[in-house]
TrEMBL record:
Name of the protein in question: Histidinol-phosphate aminotransferase
This protein's UniProt keywords: Amino-acid biosynthesis, Aminotransferase, Histidine biosynthesis, Pyridoxal phosphate, Transferase
GO biological process: L-histidine biosynthetic process
EC number in record: 2.6.1.9
Modified residues (N6-(pyridoxal phosphate)lysine): 221
Cofactor: pyridoxal 5'-phosphate
InterPro entries recorded: Aminotrans_II_pyridoxalP_BS, Aminotransferase_I/II_large, HisP_aminotrans, PyrdxlP-dep_Trfase, PyrdxlP-dep_Trfase_major, PyrdxlP-dep_Trfase_small
Gene Ontology molecular-function annotations: histidinol-phosphate transaminase activity; pyridoxal phosphate binding
Segments forming domain Aminotransferase class I/classII large: 31-354
Enzyme kind, highest EC tier: transferase
SUPFAM superfamilies in alphabetical order: PLP-dependent transferases
PROSITE patterns, per database record: AA_TRANSFER_CLASS_2
């Protein structure tokens, strides 16, 4: 008999765990509105930099601490370099935050529903979640911080704008959590670039005032670079140093990502134009869905969460499947509180029109 046949090698606590399953990857010609990417291409300056990547950059190890990219991020936010860490996507920053600030067995505060990766990481790290269900209008219960403190949480992850609702916790709510929570508050701002500028939501100043705040920013959404896996954390140097010096992988950002990321941040004017267009499309898509009878949450992100009209012959899951039959991909979550909703990324104008046309067909079929 072959030694070890039939034996499981993974650690016991992983054996019954379900991993995070990202949205399906359809063909290039499909309308892909299921993983909240930017519908517009990266800056032409980024594409030019890609064409100029040297052989040497590929031959040698990259800068282990991504100084050039971090410098661009530090300049952008007017903070010193030691307040920035570059990570392999926002997901790596989340993992680093757990391994750096949370002892196994201690709690991690989150709100529910939320980004599925949080619970997967908590399971791997054997640090239980302390979940606070959001209220029906997606606001944070006033007791949330007390619960997290009482549960002994060492880390709270607050997604703002929240995913999957897209709603924004107001600045003063975030500040109150930072002031009253005894551990590290990671504000996952993956979608912050799509907040209406008129709301003047900007937490970078907060991060200078509260030494327990760590901001997560990603280039996947706002800068159309989901394919290169690049994000950064911003916080006081005491929070950043242990991740930068001890817990990150030795060369966590590849040479191409470092170069392109820097160019992308420096061409903020291009990114801002894309954000404006996404905001315009978000308004159009929201009113188009509402005209069809959908209930749409007030989103400040590059996606909307929408419940199908009462008269619709198909529920949300069926709609997701029927859209997929027409090569349009949206997201449905197998979680009780999200069952009657579809999460739809904001696409280009043509994509949003195609989606609305298909939904008009599908929801009015039997009415
Ligand atoms: N946080 C949230 C809420 C997200 O939705 C995502 C991406 N799906 C991330 C973080 C991580 O994004 P990335 O790893 O692409 O930077």
């Amino acid at each position: 008999m072959t030694a070890g046949r039939g034996r499981r090698y993974e650690r016991m606590h992983l054996s019954d765990m379900k991993g995070y399953t990202p949205g399906t990857q359809p063909g290039a010609a499909s309308i892909k509105l299921n993983t909240n990417e930017n519908p517009f291409p990266p800056s032409p300056k980024v594409m030019a930099a890609l064409a100029n990547v040297s052989a040497r950059a590929l031959q040698r190890y990259p800068d282990p601490i991504a100084s050039g990219f971090r410098e661009a991020a530090a300049n952008l936010h007017h903070v010193p370099l030691d307040q920035i860490i570059a990570t392999n996507g926002g997901d790596e920053l989340l993992r680093l935050a757990l391994t750096t600030y949370v002892d196994p067995g201690r709690a991690i505060g989150v709100v529910t529903p939320g980004y599925g990766v949080y619970s997967v990481l908590s399971h791997i790290h054997q640090a239980p979640l302390s979940p606070v269900p959001l209220q029906e209008d997606w606001t944070l219960p006033s007791s949330a911080t007390d619960q997290w403190n009482d549960d002994g949480a060492q880390l709270v992850i607050l997604t703002n704008p929240h995913a999957p609702s897209g709603t924004l916790f107001p600045f003063d709510v975030v500040e109150r959590v930072a002031a009253n929570f005894s551990g590290v508050l990671l504000i996952d701002e993956a979608y912050v670039d799509f907040v209406e500028p008129a709301l003047r939501y900007d937490t970078t100043a907060l991060a200078s005032r509260y030494p327990n705040i760590l901001l997560l920013r990603t280039l996947s959404k706002g800068y159309s670079l989901a394919g290169i896996r690049l994000a950064y954390g911003l916080g006081c140097s005491k929070l950043i140093a242990p991740m930068l010096e001890k817990t990150k992988d030795s060369y966590n950002i590849d040479a191409i990502a470092q170069q392109l990321g820097r160019v992308a941040l420096e061409d903020r004017a291009y990114a801002c134009l894309c954000w404006q267009q996404v905001l315009q499309e978000r308004r159009r898509l929201t009113s188009g869905l509402e005209e069809l009878g959908f209930k749409v949450e007030r989103s400040q992100a590059n996606f909307v969460l929408a419940s199908p009209p009462r008269h619709s012959p198909s529920n949300a899951r069926e709609l997701k499947d029927k859209l997929q039959d027409r090569d349009i991909y949206t997201r449905w979550f197998d979680e009780q509180e999200l069952h009657d909703r579809l999460r739809i990324s904001i696409g280009t104008s043509d994509e949003n029109i195609a989606l609305l046309t298909a939904l008009r067909d599908l929801t009015c079929a039997a009415s």
